[in-house]
Amino acid sequence: MSNSLPSRKGSQLRCRRGSDRVTSFPGRATAGLLVLMTALLWQRPIAAAPVPVRFAEGSLHGFLELSTPAGVRIASGDLLQIVRDGEIRSRLVFHFNDGSVHDETVVYSQRNVFTLQSYHVVQHGPAFPEDTEISLERASGKYRVKTRARKDGRENLLDGTLDLPLDVYNGMVLTVLKNLSGGAGDTIHMVAFTPAPKLIQLKMVPAGEQKVLVGGSEISATHYVLKPILGFWLKLFTTLLGRVPPDNHAWIVTAGVPAFVKFEGPLYMDGPVWRIELTSPRWPE
Question: In angstroms, what CA-CA distances link 159 with 21, 48, 142?
């Protein structure tokens, strides 16, 4: 594997909103909102360095469980990953007890560094405040956000283009964590859909080791805190709306070949904290 990495490049976020968005703000509040949004969208160039590949990904089928922090199981899931045409296609699907579905697919390359190529997520059912479909393409920079209201069935469509930094890793955070040097942290970029896209930084901070049991053996897992870095204006805007995203948490076994153990955080904006863990097939009684 080559040690050469692409040079850091500046990137800016550009977006075009759909014309069908409706707001109920009074005139002054609307004007203030527009000022804030202008400050958010006209950002300075952002340096970006992709994450080197230390452990190449391959084909796999993992079994997952989604539960509340209290340990109540609310969904069963599958991680389906295949290698095709030199790229990894990774699909994460959760089927909820109430019939809801979270279906997330990411395609990326791993030639010396990890590079997101496309991202697509569909959420529908009563577990979510509205039905949502989001897509993002690196080659064209195009994004598309389609939402359908739960109450009246009203649909909204938002699309446009973004200039994506080299280290945008939607749907790839756990893969990136497995490829960090032992005990090291890093900062990457994510596109947060609110539903309008916001390019934010995500700081991945190691927060110590914790013991976990695998069968009858005790092993150590590194606890990472995932901290969104919003910048002054975006932090002010989200604070005013009461929508400051919480820190997420992930646990990775780093000894030898790294492995995912647990994730805690929301699956959508303003969503509850849920827990993702590995599970094993069980024989029916």
Answer: 12, 24, 7
* Torsion 155-156-160-166 (CA) sign: negative
* Cα–Cα distance, 31 to 41 (Å, whole number): 15
Please name the residue that has the structure tokens 């992930």. Answer: 250
Q: b/e map of 106-122 (b: 16 or more CB within 10 Å)?
A: bbbbbeebbbbebbbbb
Tens of pLDDT, residues 22-42:
433 344 444 444 444 444 444
Quickly tell me which residue has 């509040």 as its tokens. Answer: 29
Domain residue spans of the chain: 27-203+230-242
pTM: 0.80
Tokens standing for residue 77? 């899931």
- Angle in degrees, 0-180, between the axes of helices 27-41 and 232-241, rounded to the nearest 10: 150
Region 128-154: mean pLDDT is 96
| Alpha-carbon dihedral angle through residues 70, 74, 79, 80, given to the nearest 10 degrees | 170
Question: Do 129 and 10 meet the contact criterion of CB atoms below 8 Å apart?
Answer: no
Closest listed residue to residue 157, CA positions, set 172, 143, 167, 175 = 143
In sequence order, the 6+-apart residues with CB closer than 8 A to the CB of 89 are 81, 82, 83, 105, 106, 107
| CA-angle at 173, arms to 9 and 132, nearest 5° | 100
Of 149, 96, 140, the C-alpha closest to 118 is 140
pLDDT of residue 215: 84
Question: What's the CA gap between 177 and 222, in Å, rounded?
Answer: 10
